[in-house]
Write the structure tokens for this entry.
Amino acid sequence: MAKKQKRASDFGPKSTEWLNSIGIYSVDDVERIGVTEVYRRLKATYPHKVTLNMLYGLHATVHGIPWQAVTPEMKAKLRAEIEDLD
């Protein structure tokens, strides 16, 4: 049986709109490109709209958990990863 592709709509309407605008159409796309790289692209496109909550939401959706369940330790790791991209 084929793996069900998770859609970008799993993110919510505004996030889906932003993701689609940068060529991301599924959770699988986020997994392939990487959470921090997708966040970086979104932040570059929407610098005054995209917040760290988007980073945490991307991570959570890829891992199938609510964004509120992302631990403080994981949040710190994700923030460090995006700082390394700058």
